[in-house]
Amino acid sequence: MTDDPPTRVFVALWPSAEAAAHLQAALDALDAPLRWVPAERRHITLAFVGDVDGEGVAKVVQHTQQAVRSSAPLHLQLAGAGRFGSSVLWAGVAGDTEPLAALARAIGWQDEQLRSHLTLARGRGKPDLRPWAQRLADYAGPEWTAQDVTVVRSLLGPSPRYEVLERIALTTP
């Protein structure tokens, strides 16, 4: 057993630089009074693991390596938008969504099925996010190929940040 403090861990995909820049241009045009997720933290969560100790992190990495070993690269696109209540505005994911869902299921860690999305903003107070979701409903970013998944540590605090613990290639045997 280790004395390391628990680490909050998740498994994710990141959009390509081109897809991220295209999305940022669309968001800049909105001029919305929302609390935007910084571009470097925008990702598609495949599995939220939660708090784990040092030994647990190694197990998460090993489990994820096993889960993705027969997964091919994914052709994805950020497209459309929606909201979770009045607190989260998100961009949808299009393209290889069935293989993406299968990959998330293979990685596991949570009981509920995740809806593939990329969180864009969190509301301040309880704003009406419907107009912003509607303005982004027809958004279609460039396609990209996700070549890997990442196991990420979330460092919480006034300005949360992410640290990539392991990058695992998506390759078919």
Give an account of the 3D structure.
The protein has 173 residues and is an alpha+beta fold. The protein has a single domain, classed as Cyclic Phosphodiesterase, Chain: A. Helices cover 27% and strands 36% of the residues. It has helices at residues 17-30, 54-68, 97-107, 130-135, and strands at 7-13, 35-36, 44-52, 74-84, 88-95, 117-122, 144-146, 148-155, 161-169. It has a 5-stranded antiparallel beta sheet. A 4-stranded antiparallel beta sheet has the order 3-1-8-9, with helices on one face. β4 and β5 (88-95) form a beta hairpin. The chain is globular. A motif (HXTX 1) lies at residues 43-46.
Provide a compact summary of the structure.
With 173 residues, the chain is of the alpha+beta class.
Task: Break the fold down into its secondary structure elements and pairings.
Blueprint: E1 7-13, H1 17-30, E2 35-36, E3 44-52, H2 54-68, E4 74-84, E5 88-95, H3 97-107, E6 117-122, H4 130-135, E7 144-146, E8 148-155, E9 161-169
Antiparallel strand pairs: 1-3, 1-8, 2-6, 4-5, 4-7, 5-6, 8-9
Note the main attributes of this structure.
173 residues; alpha+beta; Cyclic Phosphodiesterase, Chain: A; 5-stranded antiparallel sheet; 4-stranded antiparallel sheet; 4 helices; globular
Count of helical segments?
A: 4
**Mind telling me which CATH architecture this is?**
Alpha-Beta Complex
CATH superfamily: Cyclic phosphodiesterase
% residues in beta strands: 35-45%
Mean pLDDT comes to 88
- CATH class wording: Alpha Beta
The biggest sheet amounts to: 5 strands, antiparallel
Stretches where pLDDT falls below 50 for ≥5 residues? none
Spatial order of the strands forming the largest sheet: 2-6-5-4-7
Q: Total number of β-strand segments?
A: 9
How many angstroms separate the termini? Answer: 35 Å
Spell out the helices and strands N to C. EHEEHEEHEHEEE
Structural class: alpha+beta
Share of helix, binned: 25-40%
Number of domains: 1
From the alpha carbons, calculate the radius of gyration and give it in angstroms: 16 Å
Function: Hydrolyzes RNA 2',3'-cyclic phosphodiester to an RNA 2'-phosphomonoester.
InterPro entries: Cyclic_Pdiesterase, Phosphoesterase_HXTX, RNA_CPDase
Keywords: Hydrolase, Ligase
GO molecular function, one term: ligase activity
